[in-house]
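User: Can you help me understand a structure? I only have the sequence.
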Amino acid sequence: MTQHVVVVGAFPSSLINFRGELIRLMVARGHRVTAMAGEATAEDVARIEALGARFVPFPVQRAGMDPRADLHTLRTLRELFRTLQPDVILAYTMKPVVWGGLAARAVPKARFYALITGLGFALEGRGLRGSALALVMRTLLRAALARATGVIFQNEDDRNAIVAMGLVARDRTHRVNGSGVDCSMYGEQPLPGGAPVFLLIARLLRAKGLREFALAARRIRAERPDARFVVLGGADPSPDRVPLERVQAWEREGIIEFEGPVTDVRPALAGCHVYVLPSYREGMPRTVLEAMATGRPILTTDAPGCRDTVVEGENGFLVPPQDANALTERIRWFLEHEEEWPRMAAASRRLALERYEVGSVNRAMCDIMGIGAA
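Assistant: Let's start by predicting it. Here is the structure, written out as tokens:
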């Protein structure tokens, strides 16, 4: 039986980059798909429609807590859901989950699924203001998940945390291996020649470990001026942001090479020797999966989401989050053991194929949501 599935995200680009293959699979199975996000460019709309979905915009403020803007989001989603009358609603990232879950009550027949792609800044509660925000967000999330048919997590740590907070019962939770990676699109690439390149791809956020990466780069380049530390990523409006001016100052100092945001990370991945993500917490880091599929050793943190991508000593190493000293020591190890890079690179590619291939992840998502062949 054909079902109408509504997929709700914050950014049109994320519908394409992170849910595109899932949308394509649901359409191929004979279902009608409506993709929803904030305002989109004509190019983004065309790319979403090329997946076989219809695009419907809605107002969403991804960062910040403006009650008027958030209430406008809730009211608009409620009205759109009543008009669309979906059978299944899948929302991902925090604000679409919260407001989508509350708005889904307007369509009692719809099965609502929340995909938790990371707990994020708002639930961590750092500082007095952060603690108050976390309390508000937990209250809203509990209400949003109260009638969810299922809550899907990308790592076990996040599932345990949400259950421990009392936001959802464990028997309504599911687990998948991240968003997956297309191992044919991110094909295995030989390690390049030339000076060693350590690459970080991330939005300019403190929680991505940018400061630790810059500090480690400063120390290593004092010993190995030939080592290169490359950063790709765009500015972010989050309260947790690292100012663009700070990153540019690091570049002027000669610590890092900052290349800003790019639409295709594959050339950068092919040009690096080791992929580094010193993040404090992730759902499942997509850039790490892309680096693994490309065939690169991984240096990341022993933190939720990140730790799932590394078999210690096989395809890379884990260091404690927010520990620039440990990060520096492991980068130093990589520079002293170049002969290990090919073995680790091959192990990364093998793990990507075995655990994180996008087709198997999306089939598992459809099974959870009861979206089989029409």
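Now, to help you interpret it: The two ends are 4 Å apart (CA to CA). The mean pLDDT is 94. Let me know which part you'd like to focus on.
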